[in-house]
Amino acid sequence: MVWTPECHESWHAIKKCLTSEPILKVPDPSKPFVAQTDASNKAFAGTLLQQHEGTLHPCFFASRILKDRERNYAIIELEMLAIIFDLGKCSKYLLMKPFLIQTDHAPLFFLKENKSKNARLTRWALAIQQYSFSVQHIVRE
Q1: How many whole angstroms separate alpha carbon 61 and alpha carbon 49?
Q2: Where is the secretion signal located (predicted)?
C-alpha cells in the first residue's frame, strides 16, 4: 500500500469524526460509566462509555502498541494490562463511583476475588482494588 495525500486526508477525516459529537460525548459525572477493553498480540485499547438517550456513546478512547517485553505475556495478562491502562487513563472519572468493566475475556472474572497464582496478575488486581466496579463478559464478533 502506498500512503498518498488522499490517504492522509481520509485518515484525519476519520479521526475527526470519531472524536467529535455525536460520536464522542462529554463525560457526565452524574451518569454511570462503562469501561470496555480489549487486547491482541500487537496492541490493546480501552474506551470509556456512558448512556446518552438510550445508547452507549464513547467519552474517551485510549490505545497503545505493546512493548517488546509485553509481547511475551499470556493473553490473560494482556487483557488485564488493557484494563490497568484504561483505568489509569480514566481514573479521574472512575475513582469516585461504581462502574462496569466489560471484557470479552471471561477468565478475568477473578479480578474481584484476586485468586490468581500469577504474581503479575495479583499485583495488578491489588492495584485496581481502589476502584468500585463489577465485571461483565461480552461476546465480540
Answers
A1: 9
A2: none
